[in-house]
Amino acid sequence: MITMRFATKAIHVGEEPNLKPGGYGDVVVPIHLASTFARKKLDEPTAGYEYSRTGNVTRDALEKRLAALEGAQYALAFASGMAAEATLLLSILKQGDHVVAFDDLYGGTRRLFDSVLSKFGLRFTYVDARDSTNVERAINESTRLVWLETPTNPMMRLCDINEISNIAREKGLITVVDNTFMSPYFQSPLDLGADIVVHSTTKYLSGHSDVVGGAVVLSDTKTYDKIKFNQNAIGAVPSPFDCYLVLRGIKTLAVRMERHADNALKIAEFLQSHDKVRRVHYPGLDDHPQHDLAMKQMKGFGGMISFELDGDLNYVKDFLSRLKIFIVAESLGGVESLIEHPALMTHASIPRKTRESLGITDSLIRVSVGIEDVDDLIEDLRNAF
Ligand code: P1T
After folding, report:
1. Is residue 191 very low, low, confident or very high in pLDDT (cuts 50, 70, 90)?
2. Which pTM was predicted?
């Protein structure tokens, strides 16, 4: 077997042409639409698949590729990032279990924890995980899991995956990292010591804002078996067409991520120099308080920036309405540049007080920098100021 580097795996793993007798040598995996699979005789097994909720050819190809990119044994694909998160936690936790989580998380993740899973007896404590000792101090005898996002959505804060995974492992806890913002191209949490990675494949992995999906990636067989059981039992699986779209998007992940990051650094520097901007949060800037950690644990700084405008909500609204290329919309990671207002959009479900204590004020804006010509993007921002 030839050793493949990242960009090669992103194109080939899971999609090897079948040149065995009966195979057609497809260069692109077929969108395998069958919901069910025939058996010759009741007591004879099927040819490998029974029912597409349980397993599907196109989904298998995607799961193989996702596992390869994160350097893992297994991946499980889901109908959304939230479906991946919910199925994961329902699979490995039980009533009374306690989770320590980074306080600055995607609003939907906090909503899942606080408004859904807490009703089933799971308990959550949020800490500022920029300081690993805050995580350590929050662990109690019921804690089973540590949940991290790094960089966080939307404040672009980092936590030390290796340091926190070591603390967790010593206490027998599982560490989960939501790697959506970096994608496997720029960050490899499992290599840094984490146990499980989750993704919203809606974002950089698919890359074109045309599909919603999620994934759980890991190497421990026992844990995989539990999640696999619940992937089928709960059933929040992606359609074969959605799997195809994510597989197709992943092929260009390496080149897209490079361009996202190049553009983002230039835009972050432009924003930093503008007198209508109070602060820019981008881990690639020298003055990001955790720039050194970013250099240590990430292979690039990604395409996400947040910044504080020097003005009130009305100025923010006017600024957004004057943009011509940036599209005002939730989500991120697509080829087109998106811009949004976390307090009124992605993080609106978090109570105002909590939001503001995290820094998600009315003047905070989040940008997902696309791969357009960066000079056009900068001109668009300049005109809108
Ligand atoms: O949207 P969905 O595919 O269900 O993924 C949820 C999710 C999980 N984790 C992170 C870090 C995310 O950013 C998201 C979704 N985020 C947005 C829609 C957003 O605009 O931030």
Report:
1. very high
2. 0.97
List Cβ neighbours of 373 (8 Å cut-off, separation of 6 or more). Answer: none
Query: Ligand 1 in contact with 108 (CB < 6 A)?
Result: yes
Cα angle 282, 286, 288 (rounded to 5 degrees) comes to: 45
Q: Is 268 exposed, middle or buried (0-12, 13-18, 19+ CB in 10 A)?
A: buried
pLDDT over threshold 90, residue 2: no
Mutate to test the pocket of ligand 1, among 109, 177, 203 (most ligand atoms within 8 A of CB): 203
Using CA atoms, how far residue 185 sits from 260, 292, 301, in Å, is 12, 19, 11
Residue 1 lies in a domain: no
Identify whether residues 261 and 246 lie together within a single domain.
no
Q: Where are the beta strands (DSSP E) in the chain?
A: 74-78, 98-102, 123-127, 143-149, 174-178, 196-200, 214-218, 277-281, 304-309, 327-328, 338-340, 364-368
Would residue 106 show up in a list of annotated catalytic residues for this protein?
Answer: yes
Q: What angle do CA 247, 113, 86 make, to 5 degrees?
A: 35
Helix (H, G, I), strand (E, B) or coil at 125: strand
Q: Within this chain, do residues 243 and 259 fall inside the same structural domain, yes or no?
A: no
Q: Note the pLDDT of residue 47.
A: 82
Is residue 105 lining ligand 1, measured as CB closer than 6 Å? no
Cα distance from N-terminal residue to C-terminal residue, the chain: 54
Q: Report which residue type is found at 207.
A: G
Whether residue 245 sits in one domain with residue 181: yes
Nearest-angstrom CA–CA distance, 71 and 194: 12
Catalytic residue check, 203: yes
For tokens 């599909």, name the residue: 211
Are residues 51 and 192 located together in one domain of the fold? Answer: yes
pLDDT at 45: 81
| Separation of CA 113 and ligand 1 centre (Å) | 14
